[in-house]
Design goal:
164 residues, alpha/beta, Molybdenum Cofactor Biosythetic Enzyme, Chain A, 6-stranded mixed β-sheet, 7 helices, 6 strands, 20% strand, globular
Length: 164
């Protein structure tokens, strides 16, 4: 049996100093939520934190047991405060480099700057954590390639029988 999308419990964490301070609006988090709900996911939480590694790590550690997948958005670039990949790496137990490579490769075909994302993906327990860039365009394009794979990934993580 393969997991159905409506059984996938998802979380969204926006990482942005400006959004956390209320100086800017979060556009990527709501975009992810809308796309997940359209796919039938149960969105367990959506939150905003600053570009602080300890804060990012704490949120991921507190919420990974509630979700099958957590999408982060923001903090994947080259700015000095872009620390999402480093914080995520401290949380995950197993890296999934193919997903990060897929996001960069598919994004690059539409915008060469996609290669600048340092986002990673990996698992902690039975939760997949995927770093998406902060731009709404990159989020939309990334979800296009990742969402069709999620039911299969989640089935594998839950040790459900699947077709290979």
């Amino acid at each position: 049996m393969t997991f159905m999308a409506d059984e996938i419990r998802s979380g969204i964490l926006t990482i942005s100093d400006r959004c956390a301070a209320g100086i800017a609006d979060d556009h990527s988090g709501p975009l992810i939520e809308q796309a997940l709900r359209q796919e039938g996911h149960a969105v367990v939480f959506r939150n905003i934190v600053s570009d602080e590694p300890d804060e990012i790590e704490e949120w991921l550690m507190l919420h990974h047991t509630l979700c099958d997948v957590i999408f982060t958005t923001g903090g994947t670039g080259f700015a000095p405060r872009d620390v999402t990949p480093e914080a995520t790496r401290r949380v995950i137990e197993r890296e999934a480099p193919g997903l990060s490579e897929l996001l960069r490769w598919s994004g690059y075909s539409k915008n060469p700057r996609a290669a600048l994302s340092r986002g990673i993906a990996g698992t902690r327990g039975s939760c997949l954590i995927i770093n998406l860039p902060g731009s709404t365009r990159a989020v939309s394009e990334g979800l296009e390639v990742i969402l069709p794979l999620l039911p299969h990934i989640i089935s594998l993580m839950k040790n459900e029988p699947i077709d290979h």
